[in-house]
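Forum > Structural Biology > Help requests

Title: Can anyone predict the 3D structure of long-chain-fatty-acid--CoA ligase?

Hi all, first post here. I have the sequence for long-chain-fatty-acid--CoA ligase but no way to get a structure on my laptop. I'd be grateful if someone could post the structure tokens.
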Amino acid sequence: MAALLLLLLLLLPPLLLLRKPHLWPGLRWLPADLAFAVRALRCKRALRARALAAAAADPRGPEGGCSLAWRLAELARQRPAHTFLIHGPRRFSYAEAERESNRAARAFLRARGWGAGPGGGAEAERAAGVAGAAAPLAPGDTVALLLPACPEFLWLWFGLAKAGLRTAFVPAALRRGALLHCLRSCGARALVLAPEFLQSLEPDLPALRAMGLRLWAAGPEARPVGISDLLAEASAEADGPVPGYLSAPQSMIDTCLYIFTSGTTGATVVLKSKFSAGQFWEDCQQHGVTVFQYIGELCRYLVNQPPSTAEHGHKVRLAVGSGLRPDTWERFVRRFGPLRVLETYGLTEGNVATFNYTGQLGAVGRASWLYKHVFPFSLIRYDVTTGEPVRDAQGHCVATCPGEPGLLVAPVSQQSPFLGYAGGPELGQGKLLKSVFRAGDVFFNTGDLLVCDHQGFLRFHDRTGDTFRWKGENVATTEVAEALESLDFLQEVNVYGVTVPGHEGRAGMAALVLRPPHSLDLVQLYAHVSENLPPYAWPRFLRLQESLATTETFKQQKVRMAKEGFDPSALSDPLYVLDQPGGAYLPLTRARYSALLAGDLRI
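Reply #1:
Sure, ran it for you. Structure tokens for long-chain-fatty-acid--CoA ligase below:
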């Protein structure tokens, strides 16, 4: 296959020049495209060989087929003394990870009543702490983990896989209705929670018990009646291998875990309970980190830190992730390099992903003909007003032109399936588009707008829900934010659309955080937006904040900010409004707010 691709490298350029003139600008990147394709095919071949080797193993033996449990056991045999995990001063080898997860697996198997002999099920039920409140776990049941980043999280996750149980990663900040919704949606039968969460979860305990959940705490601290210490139970178990047939999957699409938030795995892993921008480079130096994964605004937090000696002399060679804006990308590499940035695009539930294997600043990948042949996807025109794709007279979607923002969609097939969401197939129907290019075809709707330029580079444009329409034009929040972030006195910017009574669409509003020790220069800000943005994209409102609200995965909170609006009587932050006739931003007083609602103040 590699030889065939090299032959294509020699033959295709002249053929493409003759038959596909629109591909000419991207021909210089053809060697990189082919090199990436060769690596992808080699990786695919290696994975297939590994799966075949696992399938050939005795399904009732310790391997148990190709699974998470099988892979950990394989690595523990191959490199038992190699460091698997670093957490603060503690280090764990692959062999230790295997033993600890075996203990956890046996504790979960005891809750299943496995190997307990006659009466095992009754014993497991009594272990729940409340008679009749939680039945014994059954193969394939889901156990939710509500834990911080810690080694025990991994031991329990691997232990559940070995015990033939599914895992649900529940975000640690969830409480009340949101927590109950997540537990119901994945069909959880048990919940393991951190002792430090018990106090904040106390109001939820009656509802959790009413759901029939078995409750465990991961630690010996004081706990309410009916909640046992899972770690103590696991420590009392043997650490020998668990029979592989308990975790052997029936097929490659068997459910292993449910994810409600993002996660990371690698080789040696350095785990930290909480992200600290101020300690990041010290941690990298201390542990000899060579690769780290970023998401959202994480890299911006790093470049906004004051200079330190720890940021030089590190061994980091590669940063992998998504959500890195071009301005931050350039500053990050210039300050902390030399290192390589691999920006990617993908969704946990999606069937399409892209990789910026060329290192092109600001791109998330390439839409080369070769990549799209192996991993097909399309960009189609999208109507922000209706929230639907644009269709032609035949009812089919319309592909975008180079430079035009489009909705990213990918065909659903046996090779690239969409498996849906926990809770039932009907929950995933809203993510599917039918009859996109021909009658009866089905595509996955990513909900993201991307732009493909004339060289074939893909750039993230906006979320469909974030792009808004004002004065009959589409406004991309990322475009406005990037323009504002180039001002030296602004450290962070969050752009979103707000509804204004008496006006169609949504008006742009920008939440701003100043870069110390600068002050807000409204004159320069107005001059900057008027020179760098079209008039319809100028922010109509400004909100000055000490810091921006973000999600657990460092993504900006846009929906909440939009709901809070721009009423000066309801917000304590300094607010400003665009006075377009006067060519300035003015403080948004209550008088000006009233004039705006009455239609006397034009924006």
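Residues 129 and 225 are 7 Å apart (CA to CA). Residues 58-64, 116-133, 261-266 have pLDDT under 50 and may be disordered.
Shout if anything looks off.
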